[in-house]
Amino acid sequence: NPDYIDYFSGVDPEKSGLNSDRYEKKSRFQPSKWEKLQVRRLLHRLKCGSINMDYLEGKVRDMNDLVKRGEDQDDTPFALWKGDEEDELALRKGPQHMPAPKVPPPGHAFSYNPPEEYLPNESELKEWEDLDPEDRPYGHF
């Protein structure tokens, strides 16, 4: 048939794109989003200890095969309340801080600044000093 054209027999490979030497796309070399999530999950489980490398390498079919039940459990007694460790911890921290008692604020007599005519003279001051501290009208002058 003379009208029949064989497209694949005499076509230039560069034009057709079949055997082109173009660079591969960057996305072909990078892991996909889902692969990245899967790797992140496995790493997290490795850190937590729920899986180990034997499971990842395929040496162990299931993580339950690694757990040997019944052999690790002993009937040895143990302390339920560990008071000794708590006492050691308290000693390690040191004595607790005790705040100083608060002093009451000064009263009106402390802050009063009288004029000179109301201030006592030397004879009144001597009388005041001769009194017992309990009998004085004010604790100070």
Q: Can you walk me through this structure?
A:
With 141 residues, the chain is mainly α. 38% of the residues lie in helices and 0% in strands. The chain is built from 7 helices and no strands. The protein has helices at residues 13-16, 33-48, 53-57, 63-66, 83-93, 108-111, 122-130. It is elongated, with a radius of gyration of 47 Å.
Topology summary:
Elements: H1 13-16, H2 33-48, H3 53-57, H4 63-66, H5 83-93, H6 108-111, H7 122-130
Please tell me what the overall shape is.
Answer: elongated
Low-confidence stretches are: none
Number of helices: 7
| Percentage beta strand | under 5%
Kindly, what is the distance between the CA atoms of the first and last residues, rounded to a whole number of angstroms?
A: 135 Å
Tell me the helix content.
25-40%
Main sheet: strands, sense, barrel? none
Overall pLDDT score? 76
What is the radius of gyration?
Answer: 47 Å
> What is the H/E string?
HHHHHHH
Q: Care to count the β-strands? A: 0
Would you tell me the structural class of the helices and strands?
mainly alpha
In short:
The chain has about 140 residues and is an all-alpha fold.
